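User: Fold this; C-alpha cells only.

Assistant: Input:
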Amino acid sequence: MTIAMRNVGLFAHVDAGKTTTTEHMLHLSGQLRAPGSVDSGTTQTDWLDVERERGISVRAAVTRLQWDGVPINLVDTPGHVDFLSEVERTLRVMDGAVLIVSAVEGVQAQTEVIWDALRQLGIPTLIYMNKMDRIGADPDAVLAQIRRLLSPQAAPLVSPDGKESGFAGTTPLLSGVGGFATGAAGYRELLEEAVAEGDEAAMEAYLAEGGLTDGQLEAALPELVRRRALFPVLFGASSRGIGVKELLDAVVALLPSPQGSSERPVSGVVFKIERDPAMGRIAYVRLYDGAIRNRDTVRNHSRELEEKVTQIRRLNGRKTEDTGQLEAGDIAAVYGWSRARIGDVLGTDAAVPGERRLAVPLLTVQARWKNDADYPAVIAAFQELADEDPQLDLQWLPEERELHVKVMGTIQMEVLAHVMRSRFKLEVAFDEPTVIYKETPAAPGEGFVAYLAPKPCWAILRFRIEPGPRGSGIRYRSLVRGERLLESYQHEVARRVPEALQQGLLGWEVTDAEITLVEGEHHVWHTHPLDFVIATPMGIMDGLANTGTKLLEPLLRFRLSVPEKYGGKLMNELMLMRAVFEPPAVQGERMEIEGMLPVATSLDFPARLGSLTKGRGTLSASFAGYQESPPDVRAERRRRGVDPRDQAKYILTARSALASQ
C-alpha cells in the first residue's frame, strides 16, 4: 500500500551545501521564520557544539516538513568522508535521495561513493546543482561531468538563467510552448532524449515526431525516476533561496512514497542511537510495516528480546513532538529501549531492506587521557560513543589499561577529542593513527585440538583451513555428523570461529579464509557446552600456525585530476607510493589519472597534493579492498590477551574468565 509521505536523504561531498539547502526547505515550508546560517552556527540540523564551531555536519539529522500537503521526513547527512558511517546508516532507510553537486567543484570523491551506493540500493535520486551564483560556476561543464561520471541518464528538468553573479533562477523545460533560448533548447533536447531512451512509447513518439510534447514528458517522468531509468537535474543557489522551491516540487512530484501497511506485523529497523540526559537512550526507527504505540512491548528480532516503549516523538531538528504512535512508512524517535543498538531489526525482518557498507575504517588509534583518575569515565564515555557509532569498534584492554578505536581519518579524531571535552568534560588525546592491516592463510593446512584436561572437559576438533578468494571474507561449514558432535555444540563452534580469527599470527584480523570442520567429538559425560568455547580458538590458531599467514594491506581506488604541466611530477610521486594506474587521459589542459594506491604510503598525499600542484589538483579516493603486501612490508600488532597457542596458559585464563561470568 502506498503511503502519502516522503522519506528523503540529502547527500553530497563536504561543503556542497546540504545543510543550507535543508534550512531553506524548512523556511519555505513554514517550519522556520528565517533560514539559519552554517557560518554563524544557527542552523536547525547542525546543533552539536562541534558542528557549529567547525561549520560541518558530523551526525545525520532528521527533520520534518510539509510541502504541497505531503509530509516529508528529511535527513541531512554529513559530507565529510570521516563521517561516512552516518551516511551509510541513513541510506538504508530512505525511499528517495537528493544528491547535491557544487556547480564550481563538480563531482567530487564523496559524490561518487554515495552515487554508487544509491545505485546498488536502487534509490530514486534527484541531482541538485548548487552554488550556481559562485565565481567559477559552470553548469554546462558540470552537467557533462555528471553524465560522464555518474549516469548518462542524468537529464535537466530546468535550465539555468545565467551563472555566477548573473544567476537569476531557472526556467522550466516543460513550458507548454516552444520558443526556448539557445541554452534552454539544448537542455530540453537532453531531457527528451533521456525520456525516449527509458520509455518505449516515448521512443516511438520521439522517432515518429522528432521530439516529445510536454504532456508526453509529464506522463513518463515519474515512472522513469521511480524505476531509476532517469535522474532529473535541477539548479539553484541555496544560500539565496534560489531553486529550492523547484527542488521541493520535484521531491513531491517525482520521488516515491513509502510502501507498507499498518495492518501487517511490525517490521522496522533502528538506524540511529542518541542519548538524552533526562530520557536516556533514543532509538531512531524507520517502520516499514505495522504500528508501534506508547506502552507497546516490541520484539527486538536481532537481539531476541522484548522492550517496552515509553514514548514516541516526531523529530523536527532540535524540536520533538510527542505523537504516541509510529505507523508504517514513517520515521520517529522511540524512548525506553535501553538495549537497542544501531542496525537492530524490530518485529520481523520481512520488509526491512539490506544495507550497503560504505564506511570501512582503515586506521586504528590509541586514546590517552590526562589524569589516571579519569580512566573509568573515559571508558564509559567511549562506550557510549561506540553505541552511537559502532564503526569505532572500541577495543578496551583492561589488563594493559589501553583503549583503541578505529577511525576514518584525522578530522574524526579531532571531533572525537572535541566531543569528549564538550560533552563529557574529559581531556583525551590520540596517538598517531596506524593503518589497519589484515592477514590471510598462506597455504592450505589443518588445525587440531584435543581439549581433555583438566577434567571435567572433553572437546576434540579438527579444522581444514584454506585461502579464499580476495574479498570473500570468512566462509565456514561443517562436515561432522550430529551423532559425533551434537548440533548445539556445532552451533557454538560456528559462533566462535569468527571471534578466534580476530587476531592472527601477526595480531591482525584474519580474512579471505575457508574454514571447514572435518572432525569433532564430544563425550556423553565429560563434555560441558563451554568446552567448545575454549577449544575452538586453540584449534584455529593451531591451524594458522601450520598454514602460516600473509599480510594484506588496504587499497584506495583513486582518480587524480591535475593541470597537464604537473602530470610528470605527479606520476613520479604515484610510483614512489607503489600506485598502479592506467595511462593518463588528457582532457583540455588537464590530465586525469586513475588507479589503485596503498593506504600506508599515501596518508599524507592529500595534504601534499596542494603544494605539488599549487592548489590546482583534485583527488577522489575510495576504499577498494585489500591486497597482498610486498614481501618487504612488515607490520605486526601486539596481541591482546593470551595466545591460544600457549594452550596451558590459555586454558587456565579462559576457564577462570568463564567461571567468573
